[in-house]
Each structure stands twice: as structure tokens, then as C-alpha cells.
Amino acid sequence: MILEKAPKDFSLRDIYQLAWRCWPYYRPQLKHLITYIGCNGLFGLIMIAVWYVGFDLIENKILMGERLEPLQASMIFVGDDYAVTADDGTSQLTDGQRQRVRNAVLVIAVVVWLFITGWLTGFRYYEAWIFQRINQRLRLEMLNRVERLSLKFHSHARTGDAMYRVYQDSATITNILTWAVITPLRAVTTLFAYVVILMFFSPWFGLLAVAAAVPIGFLMARMIPKIRVRARAARELNSDLTSQIQETLAAIRVIKANCAETEMMARFTRNSQQALDAAYQMRAFMLQLMLGVLLIAFSAFLVAEYFMATWALLDKATFLGGSVAVVGFAIWNLGAYRSASNAGQDSAITIWEIVFLYSVLQDLAVGLKRAFYLLDLEPEVFDQQNPKKFPAKIQALRFEDVRFGYAPSITVLRDISLEAKAGTVTAIVGGTGSGKSTLMSLLLRLYDPQAGRVMINDCDLRDIAIDDLRSNVAIALQQNVLFAMSVADNIRYSFENASDTEVESAAKIACADEFITKMPGGYASELGERGSKLSAGQRQRLSIARAVLRNTPILILDEPTASLDAETEQRVIQNLATWGDDRIVFIITHRLSTIRNADQIAFLEDGFIKELGTHAELRARQGSYNRFVQAESGEGEGDLTNG
User: Fold this and answer.
1) Whole-angstrom distance, CA of residue 542 vs CA of residue 511
2) What CATH number should be reported for the domain whose range is 481-551?
3) pLDDT tens-digit series, residues 364-406
4) What DSSP string runs through 390-422?
5) CATH number of 20-376: 1.20.1560.10, 1.10.340.30, 3.30.300.30, 1.10.443.10?
6) Domain residue spans in the chain?
């Protein structure tokens, strides 16, 4: 997928507006950044000065035997008799003096080389330390924001895309600092210094630089939008590729069971090639731009080179010669020619570098905008300004005319009104897609109702702090998640302060103690990844034990006994009923043996609570619930359809 229309939001101005958004992440490292940028600039200026002074010393003094400028003599620690004076300006250095100057320059060169090596080593380490701290701050905030977004976002977003944004796109916050601030600052400063140096030699070089800038600007105007489009396509396609990898690994059992390996590899190869093509096209356009800029810049340099060589042959005086006399360039001699030539060549390379930076910024701007996309998303579920505490003693929980849908045009729950009192078990029953799990998700504020409200005692859930609410509601899922740690640690997951006695008590309520004690290490036995060493029923009982251990006033069991045999199921349900005598328990289940012992049954159909009552009451009504039981079990015994 290649986007043909260039986005309008990546002009140079908007790139720097994006960079300005990074300020909150740069600010904690401000003193380090100022030190870093200041030292970087100072180092560059010192290197330019050392290079020019050294160039004259080698070309004009050592090779040509010209006397040193007074400042040069002081810099390399030789006597005043090496320096030029007013009355002997045409005299030359002796062979012995030239050798001493050479030796002094070599010693200083070694010292400078050691200084540069040490400086750059420490400087790179310092740079990495600063940048990683900035990047870490952004990644943490991005992941924190993703975690706080409602399930409505996660239901539609691809996990791989969020992973790519947090891990890959977030890195652009430091890249943008390098490529949009630090490196351009160095490049522009260096270019300015070179242009000033060249204009000291001749003002015509400034005019030549302006002449070269016109075609370069025209070329950039044509090529940059093409680079921008391909940069966006490359990141989007690579994000899709990451999503596919994540989805493939998560569904590996399904893929193998259906012999779909060949099909999945073909799809992956096709998508990978598309991502590769987009990245290749972006770099191809960048290469065309770079070649064009290089051709224009060096064409201007060759014109300047012709005049430099001509003036050097004629010993023509340099423009503002007195300003550069400190390094002996008052006239166009060999040293002046070589210095100006190198300055012109470096100017052309620096122009090329600046254009390259701008083209790279197109890709970085795409990545940075993708990173900020997650931060710009406002959580649909959030705390009020002054949230209330969860009630100390819960009496009842009510759904009052609740309506909810994942999209404005699709309503999942309609006019839901339901009350559950402390010490009762409420079974939520219905066909697939009737809204059972969605209804329970509202209790955890994974979503908020679009209309109506959910009340605990007389307090709206939206007025209670989210963390406070969720710490008082436990849930056991049919698709439970176990970790590669001990049995005890799996049960006390997210409740690490629980004692061994509390863990064992919760396991007994879930009828898990009987198989745990038979394991070689008991509660200290290590489980495989995702609890692979256990059966489905054993994993389910550990999930129930984990929910019981939290000892919350509200318990939600989503298909809690789907993998249990009838005898174990009855014992677990009886234990839960005894344990929950002062709690509110909701059970989403399809098993009739579990449902008929509930204090009340809410039968959902098409998003409505069609019927509400006990098993006997609903059977006696001969309504939707009764027809549902008859259709699924024949005689009203056995299992209901899973929903």
C-alpha cells in the first residue's frame, strides 16, 4: 500500500512544532542538553581553528619555509626569531628551523589526536546516557496511556501496531533532537563559518553560493513530498508487519491445527515485500535528491576552484587580507589556495548534509507523530476530579436503564435494569453476542455506559476512583492466564502480600488444594509457560483461587466451571456460595447445574434482559428462558449454549 498524496503536515515549520512538543521530555535533561550542545559547538569551532592554523603551518611554513606569524610562533612554543618582522618580511626559515617547526607540529598533532579521541569517547557515552533517559520517559508515558485507554480502543486496535509505536516510533524523540536540532545547528554553523572564510578570500564566493541555492531549492520542492509519502507508507506497513508477527505467534496452535503454515508464510512474505518496497522507494528518492544536490554543489565548487587556482598563480591579494593575515593568507599563495579549496569542498559537502538531514526528517516526523498519536488519545474512562471512596460496606449493586455500544450505530446493551444484593449469586445467561461479558465489563469500568448508570449502594461507579473500584472487584475468566512461576505465586499474582495460609485457604475454596498437594513441590511447584503443565480444569481452579484470594466484596466468574467435571463443579459452587455469604457474586455460565442454584437469573437476548427470576420461576413462565433451555437440552437438563 503506497499513499500517493503527500500529507500536508510535515513542512519544516510543522516538523519543528512536533519537535517543540518534545519539550516536556527534554526539560528534565535540560542542563545536560545545554552542556552537550555547548561543548559540541565549542569543539567544532576549536577544530576549525586548529585545522586552519595547522594547514598554514604545514603548507607554507614547513614545506615552503616561510616565517611564522607571531601568534603561530607562540602557539608552538618557538622563539621570536622564527616569526616574520617588519624589516625582514621576505626572509625564509633555515633548514634547522623548519625541522624544529615540523617536530613541534608533530608533537602538538599527537596531543590534539589524543584529546580528540578521549573527547569523542566520553562525549558519545554522555550523549547515549542523555538520549536513553529521554526515550525511556516517553516510552513509559506511552505505555501508561495505552494501559489506561478503555477496552473500546483495544478491541479495535492491533496489538502489534501499539507495540511498534511504543518501541520503534518512540525512538524518534531522540532522533529528532539529533537530526532537527543538534546536527543542523552544527551543520549550519559550520557552513556559515566556511562561507565567511571564503568571503574573506573573495566576496564572489558568496554570490556563487546564492546561485547554487536556487536549483537546490527547486529540486527539494519536487523531491521532498515524494520522500514524505514513502516514509509514511514504510512505517505503516512495518507496523502492520509487526502486528502480523504478533498475531501469528499468538495463534500458532490454530495455524498448525488447520495446516495453514504455507498460507501464513505466503501472506507474511507478501506483506514483508510491500514494507521493503516502501522503504526502498523512500531511499531511492532520497538518493536521487542527494545526487542532484551533490551535482549542483560541486559544480559551483569547480567554478570557484578555477578562480582560486588562477588567483594563486597571479599572487593576487585576498579580499580583507589583513583579517586572515594571522595565518599568512594576505595573498593567494599555495596555502591560501589549499585552504580556500578545502573550505569550498567542505561547504559543498555541508550543503549536501543539510539537505540529507531535511529528507531524513520527513521519516522522523512520521514516526514522532505516530508516537504522539497514542499520547493524544483521551481515555474514555477516567477519574472525576474529586473521586469518592469505595463504600466500606456494600449493600446492593444496581444497573439503572443502562445502554452501551462499541460504536454509535451498534448498540449491545439496551435499557438494562438489574439489582443484586449482598449475599446473593446472580447468573447472567444468554446466547452468543447477547452482551453478557459486556455487562460485567461495566462493573470494572472497562467501559462506561452511554446512557444510564451503574450504582454501588447510592454511588455512581463513575464517581469512584478507577483503581479503588477495581481493587474491590475480582474476576475469574474462562481464558485464564498463568505464568511461568510457582503455583503459590500464580495464586497471589497482583496480591503479593498474601500469606501462605491465605493462599492455601483460597485454593481449598476453589478445590485446587487437592491436586496442588499431589504435585512434587506442592505450592512451590514451578509451572510451565501459560501453565502448560496443568490440565484445563486445573488451570481454571487456580484462576478461581486467585480471584477468591483478593477477598473483594464483588466477584465476577466468567464461565468459571466450563472445564470442570460435574462433581468438582458442584463442590466449587457450594464453597463459593458459603464464602460469598456477604458478597455479591455474578456468574456468567452456560451450565444448567450452576445456573439453577443462583438466587436470580438474568436472561439476556438481543441486548435486553428478557426475563429475571429464579430458575423455577423462569421455567414456570414458559417464556424465552424456558424455550432456550428446551431448545438446548431437550428436557431442560444439561448445558445451555455458551455465550
Assistant:
1) 9
2) 3.40.50.300
3) 888 777 777 777 776 778 888 888 899 989 999 999 999 998 7
4) PPSS--EEEEEEEEE-SBTTB-SEEEEEEEEET
5) 1.20.1560.10
6) 20-376, 481-551
